[in-house]
């Protein structure tokens, strides 16, 4: 069942964003994390020390586990950031900054 | 559960100072129990940056204690290894004006006579040390002895290494005394702990513990915020701060003082301080203070303009009227010892404090004269 059904949501039309250059669909009002989950992606960052996969943990902006690079800016919380048409989302390795 | 424990020493406070007191007392052969109303490092220890500094201290007893403490920290780092994130990274103090540089150079000269290593850095060499520093600074001084630990980890590992009995979540509600007034232990919400010696290592709350024993100890909170950035590759190599920081540390003002202090950490985030205000135990967030911290840090490191601050934390330095801690026996209450009131220098001074206090507990003459730190020194002024 689509999550839209129980709440009878009628969102505006979907738009396209990219994850590492691959196009995925997102709905208005979704966060980056929600759009990634809907596309079946559950991890989009690797840790600084040991390169382990990370995605949503708390989902409410507290834990900073879901950091992601969007439109060139690293370390943004995917769970809080509203997704916008044309966003270029990139998986983030380590600090997300060039060494 | 009610317990009745007997040991040689009760240490009140499972922060950095309490942990160091426990470690050195245990190594002196004493049976130690540490009691804290909260968790390990739940007070000021968990709200600091973990600085082990000589650079911000003028010659005198505090600097002497800092030099002793740094030697002890280096030894502990060798024993405990990487888990406490000890980094002997050095400090760099920078001046933005010629007058500021002259004052800094004078301070460094005085510190050298006290045993501090202080290397003058001319303006054209500053960027060899810190490539991302702002242009146009007048010069600076490098202090290779300045170091850092991760304070929460350091407190936890020192406690573990001490082998002391650790009772967290137990509020001390009274100090037990014999008929002649000597200390014989503490009362907690979960029973009594008996010991002929009690160490007050309650940091900013040390005045309350002293009061339970009937002694006055004027420890006041001096609030500070720390701003934490997103994790970055190592761009700030030393602890870097502006020369006015030393003036702020020594000031007696109750009003807000901020001076930029910027340092990288082993984990990646850059820590930005330092604010000082005497506003009681008010934990509420202050946007003006945090703005001032960010602006000051950007003046030193312009690249921070594009870096995100993730969060802030707040803590209360244990401030005493003459900026010196209280260390040693309390002549007013036999068996009561104090190890608190280190203001913003408690992590750095913890090892020396614990070492000297263990010497006193063991009946030895302390390696450093404790007279300047006498806990009852404010009585004379009042009288």
UniProtKB/TrEMBL annotation, chain A:
Q: Name one Pfam family in it.
A: Fer2_4
Q: Which InterPro entries match?
A: 2Fe-2S-bd_N, 2Fe-2S_ferredoxin-like_sf
Q: Name one GO molecular function term.
A: iron-sulfur cluster binding
Q: Which UniProt keywords apply?
A: Oxidoreductase
Asked if Oxidoreductase is a keyword of the record, the answer is yes
Q: What is this protein called?
A: (2Fe-2S)-binding protein
Source organism per UniProt: Streptomyces phyllanthi
From TrEMBL, chain B:
- Residue ranges annotated for the FAD dependent oxidoreductase domain, each copy included: 8-359
* UniProt key word Nucleotide-binding: no
Q: Which Gene3D superfamilies match?
A: D-Amino Acid Oxidase, subunit A, domain 2, FAD/NAD(P)-binding domain
Any one Pfam family match given in the protein's UniProt record, by short name: DAO
Q: Which UniProt keywords apply?
A: Oxidoreductase
GO annotation, cellular component aspect: cytoplasm
Q: What is the name attached to this protein's record? A: FAD-binding oxidoreductase
